[in-house]
Amino acid sequence: MRRESLYFHLDFRRLWAGETVAEFGTFVGQTVLPILAATVLVATPFQMGLLTAAETAAFLLVGLPAGVWVDRMRRRRLMLRADLIRAALLLTVPIAWWAGWLTLTQLIVVALVVGVATVFFDIAYQSYLPSLVSRERLLEGNSKLQASQSVAQVVGPGIGGLLTQLAGAANAVLVTGAGFLTSAFFLLRIRTPDPEPEPHDNPRIWPQIAEGLHFVFGNRNLRAIVCATGSSNFAGGALTAVQVLFLIRDVGLPPAAVGIMFTAYGAGGVLAALTSSTITRRIGQARSIWFVPMLTWPAALLVPFAAPGWRVGLAVAGPIIYSFGGIVYNIAQVSYRQAICPDKLLGRMNASVRFVVWGTIPLGGLAGGALGEWIGLRETVWVTAVLSSLAVLWLVCSPLRHLRDIPATPEAEPATPR
Question: How far apart are CA 41 and CA 107, in angstroms?
Answer without folding.
Answer: 10
